[in-house]
Amino acid sequence: MSGHHIDSTLSLLTHGYAWAPDLRRAHDGAPVVHTRLMGRPAVLLHGPEAVALFYDESRVQRHGALPAPVLDTLFGRGAVHTLDGADHRGRKELLVSLLMSPEGVGGLSARVESGWRDAVIDWEGRRVVLFDEVAALLAGAVCDWMGLPVPDDAAREIAEDCVAMVDGFATAGPRHVRARRARQRQEQGLLAAVDRAREHDPRLRSGTVVETVALYREPDGTLLDPHTAAVELLNIIRPTVAITWFVTFAAHALHRHPGQRDQLRDIGPAHARAFAHEVRRFYPFVPFVAGLAARDLTYAGDEVPAGTLLLLDVYGHHHDPALWERPYHFAPGRFLGHEPGRDELIPQGGGDARTGHRCPGEDITLSLLTTLSSALAHLDLDVPQQDLSIPLSRIPTRPRSGFVLELEPRSELKRALVR
Q1: Which contacts qualify for 114-117: CB closer than 8 Å, 24 or more apart?
Q2: Beta-carbon neighbour count of residue 323 at 10 Å?
Q3: Is 368 within 8 Å of 142 (Cβ atoms)?
Q4: Nearest to 147 by CA among 186, 205, 215, 107
Q5: DSSP-derived secondary structure letter, 72
Q6: How confident is the model at residue 294 (pLDDT cuts 50, 70, 90)?
Q7: Quick one: average pLDDT of 92-105?
Q8: Among 176, 178, 183, 397, whose CB has the most other CB atoms within 10 angstroms?
Q9: Which sign, positive or negative, has the C-alpha torsion 259, 264, 268, 270?
Q10: Domain extents for the chain?
């Protein structure tokens, strides 16, 4: 299909998560919709077959797909997200070895659980914004796990910068400026860590994530340039902090559906995992992901020229009644006894996480979200009056208040039992 298409950039900025589903509805639910974004031809893809196409490297490439503002805020220049072929496979193997191993998932989860217990004691008797507190907790835990232990005040600063990177990548104005400055600050700090690791600083633990990334060699045998090494380290820290969005959504779900609290308490791990899957499906996080047609393609009977910007509709996929029964109903039971198929639930991508462009940190996300959802369900907390609306026009979105909660003080005996 060819011809002139209206540019959708303003519509995307105005409608946010609703943009892709609305665009498809305007085209009678077609699995392929031609449009333009930022002046360039684009095609919106939808459906399970579209997921399979999008994560097929022979048909869709990543290099050149992401605009400069996204690279300079969210992912960084030279990141694994921008690579294809052998370069991508080599870098991906490095991240998989760090993030998908039992030691990686278990080690980070243990630190988060320990940090949560300490944080809950600190929250007693006062109001806190859950979003802010969880971000700081995750920043401190992931830095310690990587071999970058930081004091609490520094962890909070790292968390604020990582939140700013995610919060400002999809917009113009002050949020975007803050995101750029945040990435620059954190990359500079990590550049120094890379240099220390390459100089074998005796103050650093050996065998850490920092050392492994700093000493990683590309397929041609050369070390990563220091900036790229810092980018990849930040691309471990930032996504871990971004789990804050899911944890806050979990708290929102428990507040809106009090019966889920009892089920998490009574049923245990199986329901907690199903609950985590449903949080990732139901709540808006990634609106779509982008790639480029690596060659001329034919999909659903439609011609897509090489070089066309391809957008995979993630939010619409998770709320499509053809794919999900009662998609706008929060129902963890849909995942009880049923692990979602590879291309069924795609909040962190489709395809194979070990070799393709699916996020290698998905196992960590699911582990931490399962653990913290259950921990939230076991808290005796009050939720004061606040604005818990989640505006779909804002990317990324979250409850406007950040989810304010208040914990009653507990006795020393109760604290000991929790520990």
Answers
A1: 115/140, 115/141, 116/371, 116/372, 116/375, 117/418, 117/419
A2: 15
A3: no
A4: 205
A5: I
A6: very high
A7: 90
A8: 183
A9: positive
A10: 9-418
Q: Is the pLDDT of residue 201 over 90?
A: no
251: Cβ contacts below 8 Å, ≥ 6 apart? 130, 376, 403, 405
Q: 311 has which bridge partners? A: 44, 290
Radius of gyration over every alpha carbon of the chain, rounded to an integer in angstroms: 21
Phi, psi of 347 (to 5 degrees): -65, -25
**Burial of 152 (C-beta count, 10 Å sphere; 0-12/13-18/19+):** middle
SS3 162: helix
pLDDT surpassing 80 at residue 412: no
Rounded Cα distance between 405 and 401, Å, is 10
Query: In whole angstroms, what is the distance from residue 31 CA to residue 318 CA?
Result: 14
State the pLDDT confidence band at 228, using cuts at 50, 70 and 90.
very high
pLDDT 10s digits, 48-76:
999 999 999 999 999 988 888 888 888 98
Fold of 9-418: Cytochrome p450 (1.10.630)
Average pLDDT of span 326-335? 97
Reply yes or no on whether the pLDDT at 350 is more than 50: yes
